[in-house]
């Protein structure tokens, strides 16, 4: 018996997928890359983006046609809005929430006996018993990179976002479990570990007095790095500017294993648009955070998220976002054209920015980003960087990897045994979003 799983959307779904794989494989199913030979096919949906939902419908249409020729069970989970849920009930054999993942074997044995009433009751309490999900041991898809969830849900209620309605309110995972999982991964040789949550720097705020906060969690992981004396990088995503404190930045600066790369979503560079988005922070607050990062961790790279064409965004307001792009000189920005999502507050508002204008603004920001990224990458030429080798590059004869700041690097080598290892690369040339170099040494991690 074989299975196939498709994960759409963000890293949270990718991380959840590793636990889904573990449960399915414990039932005796074997993974296949070819969905056409699978007996069980699932998809982790993402209602946050319309393109992701469109892909779900495309996939399930094809899979249901296959049922005319062979036995096949389909399931869906992930970030699902009630409006999408109602439609999925008619298309999939099994629908479940992540908190109910331990019950998936029973659902499969019953061939997907899912009642709309029972399922809706479950979606009214998304994070109830979420600890059972966290206790599922993941089947990691990489031997050197891993995700470690530290919380689930969101309390911010940005007007454009559906996550609070798909994942529920914020619930923090016990810190002892997090540190234990990180330690286990490092001892097994993992080199890159990402702490995951919708708003990681609000970790512990839902359990005041009963749990540590995010800076202390980072400190404990940093101390773990000192104790284990192994080479690895710890990342986290995504923080929210509202809860980002100087202490978080101070802790990152203090510990070697805490990667000097920060993803700080700005969404817009205009204060009025930020209010409309219900972001609960202004540009001055954001500017202070970036200033602190530059002062305490001058070598850190800065990534962000930006939405163009949000409801009511004027030309002048977009220009303020462009000014922010040019002020902060991001190494990478994930730029999205706004699209209303059912369930989010902004879905009630008229989407008054045309698609053509959104495309134009997206293009303009992307061109600005290229300039700043290329300038930074050019400053790397002649310097040597530690690189985690991730795999073969698109160009034959080259390997590809990432610096600690997550800058893409390629270098001439056909030694596949280097994949998953750290190497030193001297940068020789730069492009818009990547650099090229020459490997000069291979330094083994200290055991």
UniProtKB/TrEMBL annotation:
Residues 378-441 form the TRAM domain. Gene3D superfamilies: Methylthiotransferase, N-terminal domain (3.40.50.12160), tm_1862 like domain (3.80.30.20). Residues 1-113 form the MTTase N-terminal domain. It comes from the Bacteria. Its EC number is 2.8.4.3. Its cofactor is [4Fe-4S] cluster. GO terms for cellular component: cytosol. Coiled coil: none annotated. It is an enzyme of class 2 (transferase). Keywords: 4Fe-4S, Cytoplasm, Iron, Iron-sulfur, Metal-binding, S-adenosyl-L-methionine, Transferase. One of its GO terms (molecular function) is metal ion binding. Residues 140-375 form the Radical SAM core domain. Catalyzes the methylthiolation of N6-(dimethylallyl)adenosine (i(6)A), leading to the formation of 2-methylthio-N6-(dimethylallyl)adenosine (ms(2)i(6)A) at position 37 in tRNAs that read codons beginning with uridine. PANTHER family: CDK5 REGULATORY SUBUNIT-ASSOCIATED PROTEIN 1, MITOCHONDRIAL TRNA METHYLTHIOTRANSFERASE CDK5RAP1. This is tRNA-2-methylthio-N(6)-dimethylallyladenosine synthase. It comes from Labilibaculum euxinus.
């Amino acid at each position: 018996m074989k299975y196939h799983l498709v994960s759409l959307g963000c890293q949270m779904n990718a991380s959840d997928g590793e636990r889904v794989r573990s449960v399915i494989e414990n039932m005796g199913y074997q993974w296949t890359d070819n969905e056409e030979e699978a007996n069980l096919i699932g998809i982790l949906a993402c209602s946050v983006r319309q393109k992701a939902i469109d892909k779900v419908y495309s996939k399930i249409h094809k899979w249901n046609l296959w049922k005319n020729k062979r036995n096949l069970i389909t399931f869906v989970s992930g970030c699902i809005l009630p409006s999408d849920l109602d439609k999925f009930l008619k298309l999939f054999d099994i629908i479940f929430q992540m908190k109910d993942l331990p019950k998936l074997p029973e659902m499969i044995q019953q061939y997907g006996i899912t009642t709309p009433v029972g399922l809706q009751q479950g979606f009214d309490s998304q994070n109830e018993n979420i600890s059972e999900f966290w206790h599922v041991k993941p089947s990691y898809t990489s031997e050197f990179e891993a995700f470690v969830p530290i919380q689930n849900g969101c309390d911010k209620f940005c007007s454009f976002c559906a996550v609070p309605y798909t994942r529920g309110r914020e619930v923090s995972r016990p810190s002892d479990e997090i540190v234990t999982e990180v330690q286990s991964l490092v001892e097994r040789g993992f080199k890159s570990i990402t702490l995951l949550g919708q708003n990681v720097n609000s970790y512990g705020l839902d359990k005041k007095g009963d749990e540590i906060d995010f800076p202390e969690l980072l400190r404990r992981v940093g101390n773990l790095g000192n104790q284990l004396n192994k080479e690895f990088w710890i990342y986290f995503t995504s923080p929210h500017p509202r809860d980002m404190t100087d202490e978080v930045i101070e802790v990152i600066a203090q510990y070697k294993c805490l990667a000097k790369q920060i993803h700080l979503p700005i969404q817009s560079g205009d204060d009025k648009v930020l209010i409309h988005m219900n972001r609960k922070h202004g540009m001055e607050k954001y500017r202070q955070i970036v200033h602190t990062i530059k002062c305490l961790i001058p070598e850190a790279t800065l990534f962000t998220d930006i939405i163009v064409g949000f409801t009511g965004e004027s030309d002048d307001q977009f220009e303020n976002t462009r000014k922010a792009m040019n002020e902060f000189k991001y190494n990478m920005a994930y730029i999205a054209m706004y699209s209303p999502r059912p369930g989010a507050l902004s879905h009630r508002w008229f989407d008054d920015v045309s698609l053509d204008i959104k495309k134009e603004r997206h293009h303009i920001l992307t061109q600005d980003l290229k300039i700043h990224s290329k300038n930074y990458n050019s400053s790397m030429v002649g310097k040597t960087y530690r690189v985690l080798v991730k795999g073969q590059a698109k160009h034959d004869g080259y390997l590809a990897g990432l610096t600690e700041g997550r800058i893409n690097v390629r270098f001439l080598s056909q030694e596949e045994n280097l994949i998953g290892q750290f190497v030193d690369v001297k940068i020789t040339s730069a492009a818009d979003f990547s650099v090229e170099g020459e490997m000069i040494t291979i330094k083994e991690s200290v055991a």
